[in-house]
Amino acid sequence: MKRKYLALALGLLTIMSLSACQTEKKGSSASSSTADTQVSNANTSTSSTIQREISLSSMDIDALMQGNYDSILGTWQNSQGNSLVFNSKGLVADSQSLLGRGKITDGIFETGYVDATIGDVTLLMIPKGTQVNTTETDTTDSTRDRMIVISQETTADVVDVYYRLTNSATSGIDPLKNTETGVQLDSGPKTIDYANSILGENNWRVIEGNYTRTESIPYNILEGDDNARYTIYQNGVIINADYQIVYQP
């Protein structure tokens, strides 16, 4: 009789032990699943943050080849004070018209334009870090994006090089927080006028803004007839849809 009770007790202990092990495994599995979910969420959050990091744009010759001028917006000037001004459509001056064709050779985009005064002009667009092979010695500043103009007025011993003008890009201040740009946009209509002057006319309209949120840096998001979108901050800094700063006043 005692043996029967002993066997029964041992059986109950075995069942309780197995049940406890199964519960522990379930708890461990649930904990592991929760941890995996947290890692997944963290990766998603990190990925989203990376996508929204703002960077400074530099000359993109592949985009230029496709007619996208975002990377060269603004004024470019040579040592004589002559200027080339680009908006998102190309050259701004009525007296200058891009030829609309070009080629890339050795990392340089070669195109041209017609100038009402001097005729056909060859225009070389050279990203920073790329050496110029048009002369035996490259006297241009290869640490900067630049353009070289070659026309019938160009002499063999002079390189007519243009660099982008900006008052704030090298100031060392966060571009979005820089209050010394000389631009102060305080309404949608003013932002649209500003977009017309820098980006070119495109029937711009404000589709989003945060001027009523005092905790944020004021901006307006504009969209044009060709669905192009730009974020224009109160201080005049312009960011494209790829989160690149394409213009600093």
Short description:
This protein has 249 residues and is α+β, with helices and mostly antiparallel strands. It is 27% helix and 27% strand. It contains three helices and 15 strands.
Helix/strand/pairing category: alpha+beta
Which residues form runs of ≥5 with pLDDT under 50? Answer: 1-10, 12-51
Q: Per DSSP, what share of the residues sits in E-state strands of 2 or more residues?
A: 25-35%
Tell me the number of helical segments per DSSP (H or I, 4 or more residues long): 3
Rg (C-alpha, Å): 31 Å
- Distance N terminus to C terminus? 99 Å
Order of helices and strands: HEHEEEEEEEEEHEEEEE
Please tell me what the overall shape is: elongated
Helical coverage, percent range:
25-40%
Biggest sheet record: 9 strands, antiparallel
Would you count the extended β strands for me?
A: 15
Domain DUF6287: 57-90
Region (Disordered): 26-47
Keywords: Initiation factor, Protein biosynthesis, Signal
GO molecular function: translation initiation factor activity
Walk me through what this model shows:
Residues 1-20 form the signal peptide. GO terms for molecular function: translation initiation factor activity. It holds the Pfam family DUF6287. It is a single chain. The chain is of the alpha+beta class and 249 residues long. Among the domains are: 55-164; 189-247. The chain contains 3 helices and 15 strands. Strands 2, 3, 4, 5, 6, 7, 8, 9 and 10 form a 9-stranded antiparallel β-sheet that branches. Strands 1-15-14-13-12-11 form a 6-stranded mixed β-sheet, with helices on one face. The chain is elongated and about 55 Å long. It starts with a helix and ends with a strand. Mean pLDDT is 78; it is low at 1-10 and 12-51.
